[in-house]
Design goal:
The protein is mainly beta. The protein contains three helices and 17 strands. It has a domain of 196 residues. Helix 2 runs antiparallel to helix 3.
């Protein structure tokens, strides 16, 4: 059987002009009952699904893994996560592997995540890295709404281009919009935009030749000077080069930025911060989720 050359794509999925876009949705609600956090409502639409919850730290903190069964995101795809934590719930949400965003013939792919945190609840939104292929067009949005006493820890790590293949992100478009609100008060508004452009990639005011960026934010807490110092020490002890990372106090919390050449390096620093934050919150260091090995 003969195939058209343009259909033989060893590195990418079928071109978006030849397929119908995915409209995936995930609705999750968690409740804290009798010392246990558990999902009480789970509804999914392909290609999104969620694995069974697990409890490596005990029943108080529920670990959930969100899976994208199609293997990657293509132009025109729209993925929606709606997550609700009822009072005193504690949840860690991650992904089983890196998210791949493939090149687009024109349409933009979007992922929108909304997390509602009721009073005294706590969420950790910790997906594994996103790999944005050259010529991809991707817009991700994250909005977190906090009620009294609630807090959120989140990170995103993004690699531009498959650098192991010598690919750079010189064509395409990437946007990231993150908002955290407490009632009508904005605690964090973070908007990033990177058009695929060699000059921006190499500029010291852009990526300075670094293909990986990352942001970690812990929001909804009153941060003491001593705790800020502890977090900076944990980051230093993780071995990240000082020129690749920075940590500063936010309006109500802390934010860390990474710019460098290694997603593993970024995650090592972020994991060190996560463990230090958990030591402060819970009085103990959590085990690494098995999917992160």
């Amino acid at each position: 059987m003969l195939h058209s050359p343009e259909l033989l794509l060893p590195d990418d999925r079928t071109p978006d002009r030849l397929r119908s876009p995915w409209r995936g949705q995930l609705d999750l609600t968690y409740a804290h009952q009798n010392g246990e956090t558990r999902p009480i409502h789970v509804q999914t639409q392909a290609p999104l699904r969620v694995q069974r919850p697990h409890y490596p730290e005990g029943r108080l903190t529920c670990y959930s893994t969100v899976v994208h069964t199609a293997g990657g995101i293509v132009g025109g795809d729209e993925l929606v996560h709606n997550i609700h934590l009822q009072p005193r719930s504690q949840v860690l949400i991650t992904t089983p592997a890196a998210t791949k965003v493939y090149r687009s013939a024109g349409p933009v792919c979007q992922q929108t995540t909304t997390i509602q945190l009721d009073s005294e609840s706590y969420v950790e939104w910790l997906p594994q890295e996103t790999i944005v292929f050259n010529a991809a067009k991707y817009h991700q949005k994250l909005r977190i709404n906090l009620e009294s006493g609630a807090s959120a820890l989140m990170w995103e790590i993004t690699r531009f281009g498959r650098t192991a293949r010598g690919e750079c992100f010189d064509v395409g478009d990437w946007r990231s919009d993150v908002e955290v609100w407490q009632g009508s008060r904005p605690l964090l508004i973070d908007r990033q935009h990177l058009p695929g452009n060699t000059e921006i990639l190499e500029s010291p005011h852009g990526l300075n030749g670094s293909p990986v960026v990352g942001t970690l934010a812990w929001v909804g807490v009153d941060l003491s000077d001593d705790l800020l110092l502890e977090l900076r020490c944990a980051l230093q002890e993780s071995g990240l080069p000082a020129m690749n990372v920075g940590l500063t106090r936010g309006l109500k919390g802390v934010i860390c930025r990474y710019r460098g050449s290694s997603s593993q390096e970024a995650r090592r620093g972020f994991v060190a911060l996560w463990r230090s934050i958990r030591q402060f919150r819970d009085g103990k260091v959590p085990p690494l989720p098995r999917l992160w090995y």
